[in-house]
Amino acid sequence: MVHTGTIDGALFEPTLYIVKGMCILDNDGNRLLAKYYDKDVLPTAKEQKAFEKNLFNKTHRANAEIIMLDGLTCVYKNNVDLFFYVMGSSHENELILQSVLNALYESVSILLRRNVEKRMLLDNLDAVMLAFDEICDGGVILDADPTSIVGRAALRTEDVPLGEQTVVQALYNLMNNNY
Questions:
Q1: Which of 26, 28, 67, 146 could form a disulfide with 106 if both were Cys (CB 3.0 to 4.6 A apart)?
Q2: Dihedral sign of CA atoms 110, 75, 23, 19 in order
Q3: Where does this protein have coiled-coil stretches (predicted)?
Q4: Three-state SS sequence of the chain
């Protein structure tokens, strides 16, 4: 999916690097999970947290689905006690960003068995992190089909040899006597 755009007659070079960041915040605006892909945009954790706090303050009571903030186009969705955000540059097509947001939300919804709330997300954080990676890599959209995203994320969390598991996966399997 190569994207070109124009702003005030200036032509932008085509790029695959559409997504600048994705994050999930709780109902207090605290980060649960976030990935930023462009080092020129929000390069430090301090800047990211300040941006997320500002973003949450502008969106947690709004009924819209899109906001322009600090030169970024942000699409968002909330459910129970979670807020999902996808950010792109100011000239990015909102429909593309919305498709990424829908893929993220639906994938998380499937992974959490339609129980999309903070506690379930934290209990399944490893699978949600894998879904993030299956949707976008370095700002390039890899997949927007929730079923295939979940299929690959689920495959990577089950039946993985001990040496290849994350610490969270290994501890979970040890606690549940899977070894």
A1: 146
A2: positive
A3: none
A4: CCEEEEECCEEEEEECECEEEEEEEECCCCEEEEEECCCCCCCCHHHHHHHHHHHHHHHCCCCCCEEEECCEEEEEEEECCEEEEEEEECCCCHHHHHHHHHHHHHHHHHHCCCCCCHHHHHHCHHHHHHHHHHHEECCEECCCCHHHHHHHHHHHHCCCCHHHCCHHHHHHHHHCCCC
Whether 143 contacts 1, CB under 8 Å: no
pLDDT digits (tens, 9 = 90+) for 59-68: 999 888 999 9
pLDDT at 101 over 60: yes
pTM of the predicted model as reported, rounded to 2 decimal places: 0.81
- Residue 32, phi then psi, degrees to nearest 5: -105, -40
Per-residue confidence band for 132, with pLDDT thresholds at 50, 70 and 90: very high
Among residues 114, 119, 110, 122, the alpha carbon closest in space to that of 152 is found at: 110
Which CATH number fits the domain 3-175, given the four candidates 3.30.450.60, 3.40.50.300, 1.10.10.10, 3.10.50.40? 3.30.450.60
Helices and strands (H and E) in the chain: how many:
6, 9
